[in-house]
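Predict the structure of DnaJ domain-containing protein.
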Amino acid sequence: MADYYEILGVSRDADKDEIKQAFRRLARKYHPDVNKESGAEERFKEINRAYEILSEPETRARYDRFGEAGVASGAGAGYPDFGDMGFADIFESFFSGFGGVGQQTGRRRGGPVRGDDLRLDLKLDFREAVFGGEKEIRI
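Done. Here is the predicted structure for DnaJ domain-containing protein.
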């Protein structure tokens, strides 16, 4: 198992900006749409996994303390699924906010963001449960 800091080529005390710069540089170099060499796609997945862990303070702290075991997520412990993300989408996400490059930041992939769940205990008598009824709930 490789060290995520080594994968990105940064030191263990690298700040968030250094990690982001290293990720962008390596992701552009190894993206499967750009680099057709064998092994480039696997390397790209490793780079993305390393960035996924090291870019979030909580997961980075767990990784620093426990290694891969601290960030493994059960059966899904592997690499993120990039679905139909092409190079243009990756490029746009890298450069949004840099003076006009990738300015389509209002567009979201995957539809609207889901809100918080609401929970309510509703008491029904047997008759309402069996035959139905209407109750007004105010939020």
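Residues 4-97 form a domain with the Helix Hairpins fold (CATH 1.10.287.110).
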